[in-house]
From TrEMBL:
This is GPP34 family phosphoprotein. Coiled coil: none annotated. It holds the Pfam family GPP34. The lineage of its organism: Bacteria, Bacillati, Actinomycetota, Actinomycetes, Kitasatosporales. It is a peripheral membrane protein. InterPro entries: GPP34-like, GPP34-like_sf. It is found in: Golgi apparatus membrane.
Length: 216
């Protein structure tokens, strides 16, 4: 039986998790925002949503797609009557990041790509890690990213993934060093041009500004 293709948020999550420790390579909150933005991008590509005024999400087709991650994200989008208060993409990625992440984790765990391990900090406080499982989906995901990099990120999906990596500060972990400075600059430019990713970039920037103000 052929494995169903990975959704964009699932692929981003596999790129972001260290396969040994199961910890994200970037900031956990930034990753969650990125997963929510990736779900929006997939829903837009499937013709389920569009955008008004560069930031307001509009559901154009509420029918489910048959994928738990994307259908969960679609169901969590604000109803038409509530769009005025809660329909901006930046606000949505901030609120939906955690449930979208959990949907991705469950799906990848069921497919054997991840293992859920519960540990305790100081012997008291439980937390979870997600190292690689017996089915290697992360390796092929990294190979696809490397191939897309070599080809200049030629298609919509690869540019979205590259832009999401930049918006969530994952780019320097995937493409470290001065040799990738030019491509990282291009990836950063895409974060401003793609509305679903720009919402992620703005949410991350808001967190950074809040942390900076708290420390000053």
């Amino acid at each position: 039986m052929t494995e169903p293709p990975l959704t964009l948020p699932e692929e981003l999550l596999l790129l972001a998790l260290d396969p040994v420790s199961g910890r994200p390579l970037n900031h956990g909150a930034y990753l969650r925002y990125g997963l929510a933005g990736a779900a929006l991008a997939d829903l837009e590509g499937a013709g389920r949503i569009t955008v008004e005024g560069r930031d307001r999400i509009v559901v154009t087709n509420p029918l489910p797609l048959g994928d738990p991650v994307l259908d969960g994200a679609l169901a969590a989008l604000p109803e038409p009557a509530k769009r005025r208060r809660g329909g901006t993409a930046r606000r949505w990625v901030r609120g939906a990041g955690r449930p979208v992440q959990e949907l991705c984790l469950r799906g990848l765990e069921e497919r054997g790509a991840l293992r859920r391990e519960t540990r305790r900090a100081l012997g008291l406080f439980p937390y979870e890690r997600f190292p690689a499982g017996p089915v290697d989906l992360a390796g092929p995901a990294r190979e696809r990213f490397a191939a897309a990099l070599g080809a200049g990120f030629p298609d919509r999906r690869s540019r979205l993934l590259a832009a999401l990596a930049s918006a969530t500060d994952l780019d320097r972990r995937l493409l470290p060093g001065s040799e990738y400075r030019t491509v990282r600059r291009e990836m950063k430019r895409w974060t401003r041009e793609i509305w679903t990713v720009h919402a992620v970039e703005r949410a991350v920037r808001q967190d950074k500004e809040a942390a900076s103000n708290a420390g000053s």
